[in-house]
Automatic annotation (TrEMBL):
Pathway membership: Isoprenoid biosynthesis; isopentenyl diphosphate biosynthesis via DXP pathway; isopentenyl diphosphate from 1-deoxy-D-xylulose 5-phosphate: step 3/6
Pfam family membership, one: GHMP_kinases_C
GO BP terms, alphabetized: isopentenyl diphosphate biosynthetic process, methylerythritol 4-phosphate pathway; terpenoid biosynthetic process
Domain GHMP kinase C-terminal: from-to ranges: 209-277
Catalytic reaction annotation: 4-CDP-2-C-methyl-D-erythritol + ATP = 4-CDP-2-C-methyl-D-erythritol 2-phosphate + ADP + H(+)
InterPro entries assigned: GHMP_kinase_C_dom, GHMP_kinase_C_sf, GHMP_kinase_N_dom, IspE, Ribosomal_Su5_D2-typ_SF, Ribsml_uS5_D2-typ_fold_subgr
Keywords: ATP-binding, Isoprene biosynthesis, Kinase, Nucleotide-binding, Transferase
Originating organism: Devosia lucknowensis
MF annotations from Gene Ontology: 4-(cytidine 5'-diphospho)-2-C-methyl-D-erythritol kinase activity; ATP binding
Residues of the GHMP kinase N-terminal domain: 69-148
Encoding gene per record: ispE
Enzyme Commission designation: 2.7.1.148
Protein name: 4-diphosphocytidyl-2-C-methyl-D-erythritol kinase
């Protein structure tokens, strides 16, 4: 085995998110087209006597490295489920590049990366379906992050339909550095029984097909999030005006807003404009990951 194994934890973006039902347990059923970008956190692991976690990177501050960190929760959950095949202790290091509580699933992506590392270092292969079940217990977005490829998620995120094809696209991400509380956004939601996602074109290979489809969709969490953080609405409008922007919308429960572009040049130009307008905001740009993950 290599001394250190690494896993990327790519940002999750909800290109469309429809809230279709309020459930008895207080959660809401969703239908969401989720994609992943080639930008995110990085998790390294080396063998050690016991599990430990250190955190570095631009968003490390204020994020605890103890047992409640999603990386440590994922490792503990894997050990509990598969004690016989789990590796000995792991010395883990997380480089936190993504803003925390920002609608792009950084914590979920970190948990998924930790599960992938545990599976890679396990003495025997563990069934993917069991790993997905374990992931669902850690958070609604963790199963999707485990796959890290374009997919439609239903239920609260545990029912996944990976897409067979997806156009090549670039994304610009803007976060006003205001964390948003997911429960607060759901609490402010007015309608709970919105119509589901329309059927996706098959095959889905051209950006224009996706653009037309996205125009018929929404993020139902965007209006309540804008009530909490008005900057979100301003960013959506500003990004929509940048050259080549196919769509600007909030991801997840916010506050990160994305712009979708056909080329890396357009995405970079939009990022530069947004940096000029808001020098204190976090701005990232990257290609989307394709169906190979
Ligand atoms: C909104 C989404 C969309 O991908 O992304 P993020 O904004 O977190 O990135 C996720 O569904 C977030 O799922 P997750 O991150 O697990 O949510 P939690 O923090 O567990 O949820 C906090 C609270 O929000 C409400 N909640 C959450 C998810 C859901 N499908 N219905 C809900 O009603 C519930 O009141 C819950 O107690
Ligand atoms: N490794 C982690 N990275 C980010 N947040 C974490 C992590 N572990 C635990 N958390 C907690 O999970 C919550 C949600 O974080 P995050 O996944 O970044 O949100 P979102 O899905 O909205 O982007 C945060 O409030 C944070 O305190």
């Amino acid at each position: 085995m290599a001394d250190v194994v690494s896993q990327a934890a790519p940002a999750k973006i909800n290109l469309a998110l429809h809230v279709t039902r309020r459930r008895e347990d207080g959660y809401h059923d969703l239908e969401s087209l989720i994609v992943f970008a080639d930008i995110g956190d990085d998790l390294d692991a080396g063998l050690a006597e016991c599990d430990s976690l250190t955190i570095g990177g631009p968003f490390a501050e204020g994020l605890g490295a103890g047992p409640t960190n999603l990386v440590m929760r994922a490792v503990a959950a894997f050990r509990e489920r598969w004690p016989e095949v789990s590796p000995p202790g792991l010395k883990l290091h997380l480089v936190k590049n993504l803003p925390v509580a920002s609608g792009i699933g950084g914590g979920s992506a970190d948990a998924a990366a930790a599960l992938r590392i545990m599976a890679e270092l396990a003495d025997e292969p563990v069934p993917v379906s069991d790993l997905l079940d374990l992931a669902a217990g850690l958070g609604a977005d963790v199963p999707a992050c485990l796959l890290s490829r374009p997919l439609v998620a239903r239920g609260v995120g545990e029912i996944l339909s990976p897409l067979p094809d997806f156009p090549s696209l670039h994304i610009t991400l803007i976060n006003p550095r205001v964390p948003v509380s997911t429960p607060d956004v759901f609490r402010r939601l007015r309608a709970h029984d919105n119509y589901p996602l329309p059927a996706l074109p098959e095959p889905l290979t051209r950006p224009v097909q996706l653009g037309i489809w996205l125009n018929e969709t929404r993020n139902d969490l965007q209006p309540p999030a804008i009530k909490l953080v008005p900057e979100i609405g301003i960013i959506v409008d500003e990004l929509a005006e940048t050259s080549g922007c196919m769509l600007s919308r909030m991801s997840g429960s916010g506050a990160t807003v994305f712009g979708l572009f056909g080329s890396a040049g357009q995405a970079h130009d939009a990022a530069s404009q947004m940096r000029k307008l808001h020098p204190d905001y976090w701005v990232g740009t990257a290609p989307l990951l394709g169906v190979e993950g």
